[in-house]
Write a structure and sequence with these properties.
alpha/beta, Rossmann fold, Four Helix Bundle (Hemerythrin (Met), subunit A), 3 domains, four-stranded parallel sheet, four-stranded antiparallel sheet, elongated
């Protein structure tokens, strides 16, 4: 049974989608005024992994991730760069795909841009005004939070108490209440604008996601995801305007939020000088190590990003590579060399281990997508293989096959080891080259031409591998 932590109810709940076998999932994407940072990467990877596991469970997932391509930050950056806002957006949307492709994110079904949804936003705002939930002042349109009794339920805010405190301060606003938020902003000089019934202007930030979600997924969805920083005001405001528009239909069944990324135990921010973009991280570290680090902690918990942590991730990945390389090539050896004395059928120990690993992986992921313990389950199999590969003839042939398939099956949920799952031509050619060099070295050794055999060994070492010799065959593995 899959249990998910719902930020709205603040407890774990059994996951039951609104429609059988279909999950409608919306995840807040970036505001495209700059390169995405590793905090973005954490969110992208967390929800990509959640999507993958839902598909692993047999659900069809309709996945939407937006691009906010018009807001105050966009306008400010465009002016600094002496560019049009739309030109800036196009550049950074392209940069998003360049930077995230190495992280092996599955493509969303839809990537709507805010500026493509202006007519839909205007229609929603018109309905909100007609229903009395919104009001217009001098070309600006605001949502009246006091007309929505449940306002604050996601963020745990009592709006009536807050409003009472505000009135005591005798603060005067253009808005009726200080928590009222903009649905439509009156045009300012030099800003992009669109026509509306309230004059030329542009949409507020929050209305964008409601319009895009309703357009592609309908008035009610299963999962809405994003970082903890979006709970208030963004997601809270989405609930208010969406449910007011639809007639109080629950907008989202399960709200999921990921934790932050800290840098060397400090909050990541430009002011502290510890702001790291995805492309900067990828220039220093392997993409798979970056993904592994970001997926190795439960998605709701904070992650500390540091040189030590990334190096730990690399060392752990090397254990996976060692086991996968061994399984892949040992299967090849078994097929090529007929006189290897190896059992075919699984032993009870091997069978129990494989079943235990898969069951523990599923149990962890069913517990609110606990990737940390899911990885720990796979590591039991990795350690078993690496601990016994010094005497590979003790493995059964069926264990070699089943282990390789199981590791790739489970790690596909985590978005890892795609090169083993779909080996490229370069990888296949490398595999054939090393096998050819090993066979050549074997002939030299049989003929007692040890100098030539040693030269072949050195060539293989230069490629990045070392050789382990057995009675009837040799295996290679990556150098650490």
């Amino acid at each position: 049974m899959l249990m998910v932590y719902n930020s709205l109810t603040r407890k774990k709940e059994e996951f039951r989608p609104l429609e059988d076998n279909i999950v409608k999932m919306y995840v807040c994407g970036p505001t495209v005024y700059d390169y995405c940072h590793i905090g973005h990467a954490r969110s992208f990877i967390a929800f990509d992994t959640i999507r993958r596991y839902l598909e692993f469970k047999g659900y069809k997932v309709i996945y939407v991730q937006n691009f906010t391509d018009i807001d105050d930050k966009m306008i400010k950056r465009a002016k600094q760069e002496n560019k049009e806002v739309f030109e800036l957006a196009e550049y950074f949307i392209n940069a998003y795909f360049e930077d995230t492709t190495p992280l092996n994110l599955k493509r969303a079904d839809y990537y709507p841009r805010a500026t493509s949804m202006i007519p839909e936003m205007i229609e929603i705002i018109k309905v909100l005004i007609e229903k009395g939930f919104a009001y217009e002042i001098d070309g600006n349109v605001y949502f009246d939070v006091m007309k929505f009794p449940d306002y604050g339920k996601l963020a745990g805010i009592n709006i009536e108490e807050h409003e009472a405190q505000r009135r005591c301060k005798f603060i005067d606003y253009e808005k009726k209440h200080d928590k009222d938020f903009a649905l439509w902003k009156k045009k300012k000089e030099g800003e992009p604008s669109w026509w509306s019934p309230w004059g030329y202007g542009r949409p507020g930030w929050h209305i964008e996601c409601s319009a895009m979600s309703i357009k592609y997924l309908g008035e009610q969805i299963d999962i809405h995801g994003g970082g903890n920083d979006l709970i208030f005001p963004h997601h809270q405001n989405e609930i208010a305007q969406s449910e007011a528009f639809s007639g109080k239909k629950p907008f989202v069944k399960y709200w999921l939020h990921n934790g932050f990324v800290n840098i060397n135990s400090e909050k990541m921010s430009k002011s502290l000088g510890n702001f790291i973009t995805i492309r900067e991280a990828l220039q220093k570290y392997p993409a798979e190590a970056l993904r592994f680090l970001l997926v190795s902690t439960h998605y709701r918990k904070p992650i500390d990003f540091s040189e030590a942590q990334i190096n730990t991730a690399i060392r752990t990945l090397n254990k996976f590579y060692q086991a996968l390389d061994f399984l892949e090539q040992f299967e090849f050896i078994i097929e090529q060399i007929k006189d290897i004395s190896i059992r075919n059928n699984l032993t009870e120990v091997e069978k129990t281990l494989l079943e235990q690993v898969e069951n523990e992986f599923i149990e962890a992921m069913d517990n609110d997508f606990d990737t940390h313990n899911a990885i720990a389950a796979i590591m039991k199999l990795i350690k078993y293989i690496n601990g016994k590969m010094g005497n590979p003839e003790n493995f059964s042939h069926q264990f070699i096959k089943n282990s390789f398939k199981l590791i790739l099956k489970l790690t596909e949920v985590l978005g890892l080891f795609e090169n083993y799952r779909n080996p490229s031509k370069n990888r296949q050619n490398l595999h054939k080259l090393i096998q050819y060099l090993i066979s050549l070295r074997t002939e030299y050794r049989k003929n007692k031409e040890f100098d030539l055999a040693d030269k072949i060994r050195d060539v293989i070492k230069e490629i990045g591998y070392t050789i382990k010799d057995f009675k009837n065959f040799s295996l290679y593995q990556k150098l650490n």
